[in-house]
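note to self: dont lose this again. the chain is below, predicted strucutre after it. 302 aa total, dont forget to put it in the shared folder this time
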Amino acid sequence: MKELIEKAKILQEALPYIREFHGKVFVVKYGGSAMMQEHLRESFARDVVLLKYVGIETVVVHGGGPQISNTLKRFGIKSRFVGGIRKTDEETMHIVEMVLSGDINKDIVALINKYSGERVYAVGISGRDGKLLKARKLNAREYFTSIGLPPPDDDVGYVGEIVEVNVHLIVSLLKSGFIPIIAPVGVGDEGEAYNINADIAASEIARQLKAEKLIFLTDTSGVKDAEGNVFSSLCQQEAFLLLKKGVIKEGMIPKVSSALKALEGGVKKVHIVDGRIPHSLLLEIFTERGIGTEIKPDNLPT
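---
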């Protein structure tokens, strides 16, 4: 009986958040171990279905870096990165699209649909479908300068930046009861494919949807200081200074810079959460303390 009472208390704790976020849009960037380990994949799928059933409109943007690197390795192609961005020549782009829009996207859709029942369905789309993510070649000099890193000496190839999101397509899917699962492959003016960093894609989609929350699932416990301690909360200015001082490094750079851009565009809050913890989505959203780092606008009170 004691265990049942504790479960009831957990549901009561979640109630104010369910009420507050009912009908709101969340964008979740799904990646890292949460995509690779079976028990975490199952946990994530169940969490997404639950969010939909309690009235939270959820859009999933997935990565696939490790899977892409493994496939490239099998083809004898070395992966190269700069500032968390994969350098993408034409041959690499073909493999990126094959892995993201093919294997990974459809696996996520199938897993969520396994738990979704008869009223809710996940649907997988690439950024090339319906010109969902119109893109152009990334201005590498401008991008790396903006996040305080030296621009690369050589061309980054088919790495893109989003110029427009087909919001109508996403909203139409949400209103029809679907959970959109988006592969971050952009489309250029001539129909060419571009590799879009999933963190950046999730940020831009959240910004143009004016999402309530943008949530990054990562393989770390959150944003850390120079001593490795996790920040439970940061404002925009604090996060910007951590980037500028080089405290935030490597793969966390595009996440935090994308978080700041999303907040500037009207997203209410950004959460960077440890996806290695089962049900991390629910723990961050429906509990008072949360489990990761939240980044909020400078004018939002504590």
